[in-house]
Amino acid sequence: xxxxxxxxxxxxxxxxxxxxxxxxxxxxxxxxxxxxxxxxxxxxxxxxxxxxxxxxxxxxxxxxxxxxxxxxxxxxxxxxxxxxxxxxxxxxxxxxxxxxxxxxxxxxxxxxxxxxxxxxxxxxxxxxxxxxxxxxxxxxxxxxxxxxxxxxxxxxxxxxxxxxxxxxxxxxxxxxxxxxxxxxxxxxxxxxxxxxxxxxxxxxxxxxxxxxxxx
Length: 215
Known about the structure:
- It is a single chain.
- By secondary structure, the protein is mainly beta.
- It contains 1 helix and 9 strands, in the order βαββββββββ.
- The chain has one domain (22-36, 70-214): Porin, CATH 2.40.160.20.
- The model is unreliable at 1-50 (pLDDT under 50).
- A hairpin with a 6-residue loop joins strand 7 and strand 8 (180-191).
- It has a 9-stranded mixed β-barrel.
């Protein structure tokens, strides 16, 4: 969900080596919904297991309030839906970038997902598909570091496609008392089968940023 180093060549050149891209950073807005609420489930389990327990109306202000569900955007069975907006540029072109992605947490902290970006309003147009895996280390209550790896395939209109591999590192700030989080980090990407010449950026490092909420 971020920008990288694919650099299209001038139109007079058709070689793979002259198409790596240097991009500016991109703001990624991610909305995360929860398919399970562990806090609510525990409260319900405790209520049912209590001898002689009776149903209560949670809307009754005179009765004791049940524990609120914990905000856990990186817990097992959580789903990420993201929207990507930004600007990207090469030595000759400037692009507007739009895209989106989805992810699913198969266990606590481990997300398997895929993202798509379209680089528009200049030529050649780029379409990038990025399967990825990310692990969020839940070491502290609010600050959660993450590590990730990805593969990226770039479709270049009018030119040969190319592939890349990359990794990311950063951290989320996700207070348990809030329904939102933000974070950021660095991404490294390497273009495969890339030759070094005057037009090529075979390796790139760039920042990424995230804003998110839960519903």
